[in-house]
Amino acid sequence: MTDATALSPHARAQAVFTALGGSIPEAAQGLVVTCPADGSVIATLAEDRRALLAAQIRAAQAAQARFALLKRAEREELLGQLSAAVKGMREGLGELILLEGGKVSAEGLGEADGAADIIAKTIKDAQLPEFGGMARTKERPPVGLVGLITSFNFPLAVANWTIAPAMLAGNGLLWKPSEKTPLTALAYKMVFDRVMGGFADLLQVLVGGRELGAALVSAEEVRLISATGSVAMGRGIRMALEQKAQAPCPPILELGGNNGVVISAKINDAHRDWAVNSLLNSFFGTAGQRCTNTRRLIVHRSQVDAVVGEFKRHITQLVTSGMVASPLEGASNAYGYGPLIDGHAFALFEKAKQAAAEQGGIVWGGARLMAAAAPQAYYVEPALVVIPGQSSIVHEETFAPLLYIIPYDGEVEAALALLNAPENAGLVSGIYTQSQREADVFAAGSEAGHVVINSPKGTGTPAFGMGFGGNKASGEGEILNAADPLRAFTLPVAYRRIAQHQATVMDFD
Fold this sequence. Notes:
Elements: H1 9-19, E1 26-34, E2 41-45, H2 50-67, H3 72-88, H4 90-101, H5 105-125, E3 134-139, E4 145-149, H6 157-168, E5 172-176, H7 182-196, E6 203-205, H8 210-218, E7 224-228, H9 231-242, E8 252-254, E9 260-263, H10 269-284, E10 296-300, H11 304-320, H12 343-358, E11 362-365, E12 368-369, E13 379-380, E14 383-386, E15 402-408, H13 412-420, E16 428-432, H14 436-445, E17 450-453, E18 475-476, E19 496-501
Helix pairs in contact: 1-4, 3-5, 3-7, 4-5, 4-7, 5-6, 10-11
């Protein structure tokens, strides 16, 4: 039996599509998909154009009109089958996430599992418990067509945050995945088509770049946009929606975050070291390429030297232990630490380090790794920057393992002022303290959508079943684990509240 790790990324990706009963839709020229782990070309895909988008919209509309007529229980059944099918293809989908997203194998598999679990959880969360023998549901009309734009760092799980509730509510979707990770979406579409049968057109996958995404947002037939990306992208989406002839539904925008964490003076040495250890995953998890990564650490001056020393020790251990290795060879680690997505991301990392040094920061680490073994890939050492204040570069979000450490003096209110200053600091914030008064002041004063206090995983897992969403420039709308997961995907008209007594025999047609 051939060892899969001995095959090229192209051959490994093709094997996944073969297992699904198809092949990669390759073209002589078009969108080039590369492998971050070694820089090789996985595939070249034909790009969808505006003319084809119109046809895809019509197909999705026709399927949606029929799908919306199904009973909620019938839609739940189909989505339950989709969850099971995604779980059944976890290895193939996880492999594609590794190949085109650069994630380590454990993280790719975990994301595939997570995508299946999100569908199942959405079904459960949308159900009302039986009460007094009455089965209960809430129904509102679906919006119609939802436009979905996703980023490269979670090419499958984040998509299902929207796909699951949108479809359960009776909508159709047009999904434009990141141009860096379209193969995962195309494979998911093949799984979807198997399950949905006559409703396969309900989900359309659009292959292309920014121009295609702009066309999707501007399409009058698309009533709601759910998008993950940069603050600039969100600004462009809002402007485009304002130009529509018919007022669209409020968008759901997850636009990253310049996430900040405070380490207080009011902790003992053991708690401080525990805090640093807790922050490791949200600092350099997925090589700093998560929207919930910790970007800024605001540390009481009395703790700075000890905090910096602990981080240096952990980073040195990460690099010297050999944990940073090519995912193609089956290497994995607890942090999901692999390569940066591409050369552009590496250039921004280098530019940020240089700017930080010019603006008074002391830069430690950040060296390029494995350049001789993988010259077309971009592995880097995590970088620390101790900087006296929040200069312009600190207000920018660098999507890489780069952590700014900013000293503060006085009480927690001074730290809060620094924490809230960037406009893009609206997603997750946190504090490590052993003072309940400080924790309360921090929770009341943080402007982020999520506040974590003494979290064992830093800013990395903020939702805790309370819904996910950012404030300020970090986004708008709420998704994932929302109390009413279908609300954002239905029209704002009166509910139909339906309750049926379960003990009554229903056998007359």
